From TrEMBL:
Its EC number is 2.4.-.-. It comes from the Bacteria. Pfam families: Glycos_transf_1 (PF00534). The keyword Glycosyltransferase applies. This is Glycosyltransferase. GO terms for molecular function: glycosyltransferase activity. InterPro entries: Glyco_trans_1. Keywords: Glycosyltransferase, Plasmid, Transferase. Residues 244-369 form the Glycosyl transferase family domain.
């Protein structure tokens, strides 16, 4: 990844137009990515204009009025989503709404460019590699991403999750394969000069003729208030059970099944540990039933979604994150754990396997291994952190240091060096 901005740069003063569907200040996870990116560029000397959703206007303007940001009201252009699709729970309707909003942006962006040319136009929070975008080619440098979604889970880990998971993954794999030949997506990526991808797996999903334009960047960025001050001693009370946390939507591919199975196996091996499962979703009842069946219900606390202040309090009281996601491209929950000096136990799949190394956690190998072997690997990591508290403390310090790689101060104008003129960046 590019170094933090510390002074003058050849790219300082660039005029950047960000198309940021997700641009919500003071929020967690993906919702804040556009906002953090905007602030990072503003602080590092860029002239920034942000096109975002109309529903975010009160929150953004309130933040500006309170003097809590360097951004100004004139830096924002608000575009509403189609009324018929703005409020719904259907995933398909949301995706259609998102694409329709992107299409609306093109006309607005063309008018903005006519009035004042921009050096860079960047679709910064499009997120998924299988979604089209429509603002490419409207500036000397057109940037898209970081995009993810090309990651695949090993079938030995999918099959134990049931026929619905298998069917869903088959459809997903087919959709990923179609990305290379979809004419709308081929046109999308052809129009962009620089494509940021979250993982190398997503790079290989791009049409072959566009892969040379790709650079790797996770896209997630943490503002300064997400970092807890590092204590002299951190990483768990030696006399208390290890406090583990799982945070995320309760979807089969987020790995809750494997988190619970690993906890049960670790307890069998003599570990002292408790697990908080924070979130909700389609697998909620299934995972509660699984905890009962494994005989660990007394060691697992299921917690519904919390307000941001309550969540931060729970986050900061944990010792480690247990997050065996099967194909996350870049999990904000991992970055939040690192910023709070917490080691991460995950699988070496998707972005997780790149973000976590042996200094700050355990990325358990999966390729060529049966589900039982993977569960054993996760369990061994839990046992290690429980029994070796000095190592837990060392990993906590390393986690805090690793989190600096994801700080918003690393969002700089140097990220807009054309791909052909620079080496691949890494997050």
């Amino acid at each position: 990844m590019s170094e933090p901005f510390t002074g003058e740069s050849a790219n300082s003063g660039k005029s950047v137009l960000l198309v940021a569907f997700a641009c919500e200040p003071d929020s967690g996870s993906e919702s804040a990515n556009g906002w953090n990116w905007s602030e990072g560029l503003k602080r590092s000397g860029c002239r920034v204009t942000v096109v975002t959703q109309g529903r975010l206007r009160p929150k953004i303007l309130g933040k500006i009025e309170r003097g809590e940001t360097a951004l100004e009201p004139d830096d924002f252009v608000f575009i509403d989503r189609p009324d018929t699709m703005a409020h719904h729970d259907s995933k398909t309707r949301f995706q259609l709404s998102y694409i329709a909003w992107q299409w609306r942006c093109r006309a607005v962006v063309k008018e903005l460019v006519r009035r004042r040319p921009f050096d860079v136009i960047h679709n910064v929070t499009i997120g998924g590699i299988r979604f089209p975008a429509f603002c490419g080619g409207l500036a000397p440098l057109s940037v898209i991403g970081p995009v993810g979604g090309g990651e695949r889970a090993p079938w030995p880990l999918i099959r134990p999750l049931g026929w619905k998971a298998v069917a869903t993954e088959l459809v997903r794999d087919a959709a990923i394969a179609m990305t290379r030949i979809d004419p709308f997506l081929r046109l999308t990526y052809r129009r962009y000069n620089l494509i940021y991808v979250k993982t190398h797996e997503s790079r290989h999903v791009l049409p072959a003729g566009d892969r040379h334009k790709a650079r790797q960047h996770f896209g997630c960025s943490l503002p300064p208030d997400r970092f807890v001050p590092m204590k002299a001693e951190t990483g768990g009370d030696a006399g208390a059970p290890l406090k583990l946390r799982f945070s995320g939507r309760f979807l089969y591919w987020k790995g809750g099944h494997y988190a619970l199975a690993a906890l049960a196996r670790a307890l069998e091996k003599g570990a002292r540990a408790r697990l908080q499962m924070i979130g909700s979703g389609p697998q909620s009842e299934e995972w509660k039933t699984l905890a009962d069946r494994l005989g660990i219900a007394d060691q697992v606390d299921f917690v519904e979604w919390l307000s941001q202040p309550d969540y931060m309090e729970v986050l900061r009281s944990s010792d480690a994150l247990l997050f065996p996601s099967l194909h996350d491209s870049a999990a904000n929950v991992i970055m939040e754990a690192l910023a709070n000096a917490q080691p991460v136990i995950c699988l070496d799949l998707g972005g997780s396997g790149i973000m976590i190394d042996s200094s700050c956690g355990f990325a358990v190998p999966c390729r060529g291994r049966a589900a039982a072997e993977v569960i054993d690997g996760l369990a061994d990591a839990i046992v290690t952190l429980d029994r070796d508290r000095p190592r837990l403390r060392a990993m906590s310090r390393a986690a805090h240091a690793r989190a600096q790689d994801f700080a918003s101060c690393r969002i700089t104008p140097d990220l807009y060096t054309p791909a052909s003129a620079s080496a691949s960046a890494s997050a």
